[in-house]
Amino acid sequence: MSKEQVLTNARIVLEDSIIDGSVLIRDGKIADISKGTTTTGEDFEGDYLLPGLVELHTDHLEAHYSPRPGVRWLKIAAIQAHDAQVVTSGITTVFDCLRLGSDEDGGFHKGEMRSMADALAQAQQEGRLRADHLIHLRCEVSTSDVLDHYEDFENDPQVKLVSLMDHAPGQRQFQTMDQYTLYYKSKRGLSDAEFEKFVERQQALSAKYAGPHRDALAKACAERGITIASHDDATIAHVDESIGYGIKLAEFPTSFEAAEASHRAGLSVLMGAPNIVRGKSHSGNIAARDLADRGVLDVLSSDYVPFSLIHAPFVLADELEAIDLPKAIAMVSATPARTVGLDDRGRIAVGLRADISRVHRQEGIPVVRSVWREGRRVA
């Protein structure tokens, strides 16, 4: 027997418009969308009915697992805490970032992230989680052990996204030593001599490992059909390299030149939603609003603040004439879903999963009132 429910009197945000109407859910999928209200069903009282958000890049699980230097929290408890914050931000599909490759800036031991992935699978199987969790491997290609760490995930079907990163000085995110000095020397409290040695070691590791490891990981992902992301591309040469690897997602480009070239080449350009909310990058790179204003921003990620993913689209729609709310919401739902091949979600459309959130907003910060995943209320 089919299970049905009706959500009515809602401002339904479609991919290209907003209508006042109702949505019929049957057996976990959207069965009908109609204009006008009904006399039965859950009354949204004019609140927005949005597609469940799709989060491609969040480091938030790591923050719950290691909340202080040297502290490791119980994995299942950390996952549940992360999941609760994610789903109450309207996120119904989340790619949890697991960091591979150890360097002097931190990282995790061999097997530690594999253990976290196993805990995620266990939590899913036991019905502990409300969002749909998939895995994004953040691979630091300039480290000696990144391929060794990747071996732990060679047969894991939950891995749907891999990003290729190099945070060495003079590369990508840190093209200038001013940025790198602020981020590492000042924040870590290193002396001049200590910092000089640290920089030399990181540059040597990058020169030795980054190219071969990038090649090996891109080849492995292509063979498995895993979406590949570049990270912090800064130049046209970086973008050309990404195109050659078959990369589909350009994460956090650090220059307008790289962002525009990536967008023109058909890569989805991803920037941080906190960057939108704050109006600037925390590491001194380009402002995401400027990319949005130029029409070359495709995807938003909450990065380190889950709630920013529902907050940022409203900021864009409020402040940029070229971006209306449907276009802004697509950056956190339809476009990220398409980029990683999840064609069954990310939009309010007949036949897709009923991943839906109810959001109230008169002015200012939005309030997520309710969330459904595959037609089941989870928040």
From TrEMBL:
InterPro entries according to UniProt: Amidohydro_3, Metal-dep_hydrolase_composite, Metal_Hydrolase, Metallo-dep_Hydrolase, PhnM
Keywords, ordered alphabetically: Hydrolase
Domain Amidohydrolase: start-end pairs: 283-356
Source organism superkingdom: Bacteria
Annotated Pfam families: Amidohydro_3
GO function term, MF aspect, one: hydrolase activity, acting on carbon-nitrogen (but not peptide) bonds
EC number: 3.6.1.63
SUPFAM superfamilies assigned: Composite domain of metallo-dependent hydrolases (SSF51338), Metallo-dependent hydrolases (SSF51556)
GO biological process: organic phosphonate catabolic process
EC class (word): hydrolase
Protein's name according to its UniProt entry: Alpha-D-ribose 1-methylphosphonate 5-triphosphate diphosphatase
Originating species: Ensifer oleiphilus
